[in-house]
Structure to design on (262 residues):
């Protein structure tokens, strides 16, 4: 069994999505559904906390690519936080730091939304 | 079998169905053998991810998500290298026609195509494709000991 869980939290000005476990081609549709749900509800300020994410493949990264444009068109953003070095390395190889805001802590990401 | 008695020249094989839920089994198999081979955790993680990407590509492109096809995974070792050979019997492709993505431009244009292959090449020492007309395709993922 693939072990992957998504949890939603709300802060004053953003939705926080906690990822836990293994994000691969099998579990990526779950993340897709989660982001689609937020977008359907016009929730465009999204913080994805990767603190408990153990693994990611390009299928997982592809989900962020699928939604970032729509989210930014609506003046929101997907900001990523709390990545372990293992997870960051995958994002880094694929050039994500060029386009995505990646923060060490959730607080930093939330503050960026406040400042906008 | 204890790790110390494992015969290093013995081929280690796993056969899976072409469905994404098999990926966890593939990762566990490759991870265990790469650890037994003596790689550090960081290197093991890289090999595991490269094999996951290769398997995902087979499921998606060679078998078009038809879930009852076979993928064979074989770990072959010698004192110098760790090799994972994946075999499928689906649609062949010419890896030369998959352009190496310009990562910066791909990411700026939200293009997902080719990212898995790019990742594989970045993670291990060698990725070799052998696509043939008899519908037997192989991908070999190689990591040298040093």
């Amino acid at each position: 069994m693939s072990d992957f869980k998504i949890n939603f939290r709300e802060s004053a000005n953003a939705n926080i999505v906690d990822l836990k476990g293994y994000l691969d081609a099998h579990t990526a549709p779950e993340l897709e559904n989660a982001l689609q749900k937020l977008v359907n509800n016009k929730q465009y300020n999204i913080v994805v906390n990767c603190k408990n994410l153990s693994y990611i493949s390009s299928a997982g990264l592809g989900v962020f690519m699928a939604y970032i444009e729509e989210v930014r068109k609506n003046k929101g953003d997907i900001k990523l936080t709390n990545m372990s070095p293992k997870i960051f390395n995958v994002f880094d190889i694929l050039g994500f730091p060029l386009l995505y805001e990646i923060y060490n802590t959730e607080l930093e990401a939330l503050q960026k939304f406040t400042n906008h | 079998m204890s790790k110390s008695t494992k015969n290093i020249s013995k081929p280690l094989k796993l056969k899976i169905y072409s469905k994404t839920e098999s990926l966890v089994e593939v990762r566990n198999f490759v991870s265990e053998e790469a650890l037994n081979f003596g790689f550090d955790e960081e290197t093991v993680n890289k090999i595991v991810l490269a094999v996951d990407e290769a398997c995902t590509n087979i499921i998606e492109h060679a078998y078009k998500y038809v879930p009852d096809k076979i993928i064979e995974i074989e770990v072959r070792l010698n004192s110098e290298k760790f090799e994972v050979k994946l075999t499928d019997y689906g649609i062949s492709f010419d890896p030369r026609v998959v352009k190496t993505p310009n990562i910066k431009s791909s990411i700026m244009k939200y293009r997902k195509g080719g990212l898995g292959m790019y990742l594989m090449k970045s993670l291990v020492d060698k990725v070799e494709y052998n696509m043939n007309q008899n519908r037997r395709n192989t991908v070999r993922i190689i990591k040298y000991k040093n």
